[in-house]
Design goal:
alpha/beta, GMP Synthetase, Chain A, domain 3, 2 domains, three-stranded mixed β-sheet, 5 helices, 25% helix, 22% strand, binds zinc ion
Amino acid sequence: MPTDLHTEEAIMSFLHEIPDPEIPVIDIVELGVIREVKAEGDTVEVIITPTYSGCPAMKQMEDDIRKTLKEHGYTQIKISTVYNPPWTTDWITPEAKEKLRAYGIVPPEHSTIDKGWLTGKTKALACPRCNSKNTELVSQFGSTSCKALYKCKDCLEPFDYFKCI
Ligand SMILES: [Zn+2]
């Protein structure tokens, strides 16, 4: 492999090519799961923090990281997982939150503001299609367990809300 590629910046740029397995409009760096990358000798280490514990997408992300870095010529790939501090939806970049909204998923609000999930109270969310606040919660679990399903009572379209944690 050319040594000039063997930098942490290059590795980060390759990781930016990997889409979130569940939400293809954002990549795993924007999702905030990549904590750090280290390039040392022949070994590339990628340190990740899982999103939701037991999220089936994490295994997929690890496989995708290995595959992508192999395609870029890296052979010694180590993936380490750290759980502390735990991942929060606040780590999703602001740009990625706007991509989510454009994709039809209401992005998580700041977790310190929105703790409605813990208390059982939910607030009115603006419909990502028509912006109406006349919306209702249909189910705490949407297409995946990290999302809740809402319905807009004006345009009648269902939509996902990416829950805060
Ligand atoms: Zn609507």
